[in-house]
Structure formats: C-alpha cells, structure tokens
Amino acid sequence: MNSHIKVSLAGAVSAVAMFSFGSVAFAAGHLNATEKALAPKAKAEGSVTIIHPLFSDRTAQRMAAAFKKRYDLGDDFEFNSLRKGTGATVAQVKQEIKAGKFTVDVITVHSPAFFDEGAARGAFLELDSVNWDDSKGVVEAAGQYSRYPHVVTPLAYTFQPVWNASCPGMENFSVDSYADAVEASLKGKTISSDITKSFTYTNSVIALQRAGAVDFATFWPALAKTDPLVEFRTEPKMQMVISCQRPFDMWNLSGRVYQNVLKSPGLADKIKIGSYKEGQAMLGNQMAVLKGAKNPNAAKLFVEFLLSKEGADLYVEGEAVYSFREGYKAPAAVAPYLMDLSQHKLVGMEDWVGAANEYKVYREDWQKNFR
Does domain 160-281+350-370 have CATH number 3.30.360.10? Predict the structure, then answer.
C-alpha cells in the first residue's frame, strides 16, 4: 500500500556495541556550518519531497514539524513524504532520472546496486555533510554500503519473526531458529514474504545464504508445506497477524509491532517478537539527492537533518530502526522493541552491489515453491 503525505503547517562487534539504548531529549541545538549555509536556501525553495519505503505517516508528520522548526523554514514550507515499496521506490526514481523530469528531490531506500550505479553515472548531487562524520565509521565497521559524497547510509533495520500468542494454537509458540518457522503445527498460519518485489527481502536471503546461516534450497520447500499466504508489504502482513488470519510472520519489522501497540495498547501482551540464532541480516538504507531535483538545497538539508541526533531520534522512535550514529542512545519509549545488537549474530555482505547480479536466481528459486 502506497502512502503520500503532504504536510504544511498554518558485521562488527565494535560497531554493534555502538547501537545502545536509553532515553534522550529532543533539542534543536546549534546548527553546523552546512546547515547554516543551506537553511536560507531551503526556505527560499519552499518545499522538499522525499520518496522512501519506510516512514509511517506519524513519523513523516513529526519529521515535518521538527525539520521546519529546527531550520526556521516557516509554516508555509511544504514537506512531502511519498511511501512505496522498495522496488517501486527505485523504479520511480529510475524513470525520473531517465526522463530528466523530477517530482521527488531525495530518495532513501535499501538498494546498494541502484545507488552505486546512480553515483557512477552522476545522477546524484554531492553532499557537504558535517553530520556524516558521526556515522561513517560505524557504517563501515558494520559492513554496510555507502558512497560519500554522493550516498550516505543513516539507518538500518532487520527482519524478525512476529506472532500473535493470543491466536488458537499459538499460546506456547516461540521462535529462535529458522527451524521453528517451519514447524508442522504452523500449517495454515504462516506468511511467505514475496521476495520478487523487494530488494530487502532478496538481500536478506542472499546475505544469510552466503553466510551459511540458512540453506534456502531446503527452507523454501519446508515453508511451502505450511501452506503460507504470499504477501509483500509489512503493514498488511502485520494486520494478518493481529487478526489471527495468519498469526505468524517469519519476516516483519519490530517497528510495525510498536506502531500497532501505540494505537492499541492491549496488543502489547499479545504480539511477540523473536530473533534468529542463525543470524540477523542488517539492511542499511542509503540516501541521496537527485541531480536535477527542484529543491536541491532543501533536499541536502533534509539529508543533514536525518544524519543529526534530532533526526535519528525521530525515525528511531517512529519506526524502531537502528541509527548508525556513533554512541547513539535511542529514546526510552522504543527501546523494548529494539534488539541489543551486541547479543546477536549480525549478517552483512562484503559485496552488496554484486549481490544484485544474483537476484534472478534467488527469486526464481523462491517462485518454484510459491507460484
């Protein structure tokens, strides 16, 4: 499901240890040199449009308010958030680059191959970021892709098992292994994520397979025996879990649980979040400003904002994802929905770009079992 919100108001343990938790206060603080230079230009442009697959409407609304307040952009400044799936996000931006006609200014999504090709072809503007210095070391140590000054990587997430313990037959169910996700007792209760429509699902498969964590040649047939429904977006999958239509999803986001608990606190004791001892594939989300964008200065300023502590607080609290800022401590409200990454085996890839060459093979293997 796509969402378009327009807001205008009148691998490494050393890196893992840096993803710690605690409470933190929101404060604009002092602007750095890049922010001071860009803010008046962004205000003159009057708007910015970001395309992405992640941020909920609530998060986008809170980002818009904080972004305008931090840089004194004024009530008339328009913040446009366009949310689509990972594949659709990249497809739209590719079309706009090819046509030379832009409706969006900045893109953030997990797609190393797209960003690498775009940077090589000169499709992105150069950034002059002060805040990137606070993240680049962690990004590198965690084995994530970036290509500064054209591409930065502010955040990451990982797919985890989620289930509804209040549904029939799920009372004593728990998951800490991929073997648990294909138990015979789960027949008619599972979901298979459609990897043909998602870079993040496909890269998770490749990363886990390459690491020797999961043999998908045997896992997919085992999952097929549970008679799963095929679904793509995390939001509808979460609703299937909540309604007991399909009470177990092997790959969802802890942030989707958090967001639903905010709406319905009674779900807190029902919806459970697990992890896989074989490994958790960490999926960094890259970010770039399009060359030819209508609002290049506002776009660059928004990149700098997301790389700041205040920006990180907003998306971490809103989506229960992980910031790459060194020494970052997440807001207390969301901490129960975030893993202590130092206690988990994290899986990355040395060659995120080359993995795209294997998409067809991995997706065909999945389709043999579910199409």
Answer: no
